[in-house]
Amino acid sequence: MSVTIANRQRVRKINLRLLKKIAAALLEDLEIAKAELEIDLVEGPEMTRLNEIFLKHKGSTDVITFDYRFGVPPSGGKFSKKSARTNRLKPELQTLHGEIFICVDEAVLQAQKFGVSWQSEVVRYIIHGILHLLGHDDLCAGARRKMKREENRLLRKLSQRFALSKL
Q1: Which tens digit of pLDDT belongs to each residue from 102-112?
Q2: pTM (global) more than 0.85
Q3: How far is CA 129 from CA 67, 150, 151, in A?
Q4: What are the boundaries of each domain within the chain?
Q5: Cβ(108)–Cβ(118) under 8 Å?
Q6: From the centroid of its chain, how far is CA 52?
Q7: 2-166 — its CATH code?
Q8: Of residues 128, 66, 71, the one with CA closest to residue 98
Q9: pLDDT tens, position by position, 94-146
Q10: CA 11, CA 48: separation in Å to the nearest integer?
Q11: How many CB atoms lie within 10 A of CB 93?
Q12: Are residues 94 and 101 in contact, defined by beta-carbon separation less than 8 angstroms?
């Protein structure tokens, strides 16, 4: 299992060693034996560029996940969601290969809005990205509710195991 974290932001100081342990524990809890995962911590301007180039959405966002199981999409392109859904395997049989971009600026803003810590928001975004890599979708209301319940469950479990405030 390979988890790499690249910190390209200066919004908050982050304990990268602890964040890597949390990500590895999450993969273990989800029974994912094989993973090549990169987590990129970025600031608003970089996330805005990624969001506009790859997803064709204006402005920044909290988390963007790229699934590389089928190769790396060309600049400005993306792979079909259908292929990801039809090739979904049991987590323990699946090799995750992807990259999760997390906007720390957005984590700070959302944490203030919801009255939680920015550290727990960062962990939530990792959970969200990994769930996407497992084939979860949040495009329709029902799927979004199901994904949010799973995020909450996993975040509670990780917060019992790790002091997220030390992140």
Answers
A1: 999 999 999 99
A2: yes
A3: 9, 12, 10
A4: 2-166
A5: yes
A6: 18
A7: 3.40.390.30
A8: 66
A9: 679 999 999 999 999 999 999 999 999 999 999 999 999 999 988 899 999 99
A10: 16
A11: 10
A12: no
